[in-house]
Amino acid sequence: MRRREVLRGAGWSAAVLAAPAIRSARAQAAKPLVIGGSVPLTGAAAETGLNVNNGYLTAASYLNDVLGGVEIAGEKYKIELKLFDDASDPARATTLIQRQIDDGTNFFLGSFGSNIVLPTAAITERAKKPMVQTGGGSDAIFTRGFKYVFGMYPRATRQFTSAAALFKTLKPAPETYSVIYNNDAFSKTAGEGVKLACDGQGFKRIETYELPTKVTDVSSVLASVRAKTPDMLICVVHDQDSLLIARQMAATNTNVKLLFQGLGPQLASFREALGKYSEGLFCSTYWDESVPYKDKFFGGAKKFAEYYRSKFTRPIAYHTAGAAACIETYVLAMQAAKSTKPEAVRDALAAADFETFYAHIKFTPEGDGDALLLGGMIGQVQKGKLETVFPDAARSASPIYPLLPWDKKA
Amino acid sequence: MSLVLQTVADGLVLGGIYALAAVGFSLIFGVMHVINLSHGVLVLIGAYLALVLSNSLGVDPLLVLPLVMIVLFGMGYCYQRFLIQRTISGPPLASMLLTFGIALMLQNAMIWVFSPDMKNITPSYAFDSFKIAGLTFDAVRVSALAASLVLLSCLALLLKFSHLGRLIRATAQQTLAAQLCGVNVRHVYALTFAVSAAFAGAAGIVIGVILPFSPADESLWTLNAFVVVVLGGVGSPAGALLGGLLLGVVNTLTAQYVGPSFPNVTMFLMLVLLLLVRPHGLLGNAFSASR
After folding, report:
1. Which of A111, A382, B7, B290 is the most exposed place for a label (fewest CB within 10 A)?
2. Does any CB of chain A come closer than 8 Å to the CB of residue B181?
3. What is the total count of domains within chain A?
4. Taking a C-beta distance cutoff of 8 angstroms, is the pair B240, B263 a contact?
5. Does pLDDT of A62 surpass 90?
6. Cross-chain CB nearest to B260 (options A47, A209, A267)
């Protein structure tokens, strides 16, 4: 009996040891589909860069290891990612992308941050190689006539349309707003988008504040906000600056009826840092596990999230889902084009009309995401959790307005 | 009028913190003529240590200050003795390159250990404020300023009255003469660097309490220290304090009356003007009297 158990154990061991060999034999049968790019794993954009990178890795791992590869025009392919750390440095990113083009890479994924995506997209465009990206929303990326660059979000000036539409439905109706943004490619155009959307909805602008790219103090801005208090304070700054603004607002009891922070409250670390003071903050969000979309690879958003958690301990973010959707979009476009030639894939991307676990993918003729299909949802922190409050179709809670004063949250 | 006073008050609070963050840089530059490009990393190590210690011990972050300063003192001593000392007799570029390389390595080590995510130290009074004569003060920033002033005063007393302070000043003023008098210059250099690192660590705690931080911020604190030192003068806590306060007030006044995106413009304009008019800074080089 013991001998039989030993033999059985040995049989299992042999099977386990042989499995990689079998897999490797299968891998040899599949052709490699090389997708290059750079991501900021260090430097100023590393926090979100890591989320983007994890999304790319999750999609590639699922398609390769769970599905055994993808079929394009009757042939089996395995995704081979060639991603390098650009250290949040546009100069380094452009060098990395140029080198990959010289090495023959045909398809590219985007880095994070418009300041990096813009110069790298110019290089891939010149080489007529497609780039699908989830990290650059600046209008400059989509208004230069690029034909090979596709983004998972609407351009920055169109991103605030849904938030302004939500503000219009609030009771008692807010009337005035002030906007804060950083002096960088994304934030500045996002600020312009806020002004366009809010002015379009008939809100009166009180003040516009432009912060430098690195901020250590906003007390003078907040002194001005206290002197000329708007109903709504809209901050389209980076998450670190959002936290600084919220902290200093709470500490100096600078109250507004509505505080919108484009980036920040989506992150669990942000909500933890502010604790109960994060209650009621509004933000943009582009994806949530509860979205109802289905796709042919993951099945749906929940299954994607489950698979992600089996691979990573880092909390899932919408950038992660957007990044994974970039790879899915490539595969779907290649399947539609029945080709892996860059020009044919570019045409299929331009004509994309696919449903993925992330969203319904459709691009404008300039390459940014369709403002309705890929436009943002609005989230609000309620009882420490991020709830979707707009649009109605995705709503998980009703918006709370006006906000409690900071000293009442204590 | 109250807006002007509020702006100046905010600037003074901010300036006190800039001063503490710069004093270590100033001391190393004044004594060893080394431009320590890893200064910002030492500041951030202090912030991360305070975060870890205050969370694990469950105490106020300012209470772990002595512990953090001891750790940074030890690190600074070893860093100077085993690495920087090798470049002291070489051209200035050698020490700059070395500290720049070390900064890059330590920044990546911090990302590896703590992740690139922003961190935040949140003491119990993080969101408190109080009013004096109609001016609003952020409690956490004021406590950070108080800690800065106490620490700068301690450093000034240490340099002025202690045996170590005398050794540091003697070595800075006449290295050869100090050596002939039996001073172990290598040891004094290492101690100077250790003291500077300890103060950088203390600044890290103060900064961590008022600002979110991540490994990518190290260059900001090195650059700020550089500007403060050029403004105030090299080698003395008083110079760092003056430079820091000036930088803080100019920052907030510019943000308020010119525009929030312009503080860097005025900061560098001041830097250029001062380099043209008074290259040794407002208080000059504290150690240069006998040179």
Report:
1. B290
2. no
3. 2
4. no
5. yes
6. A209
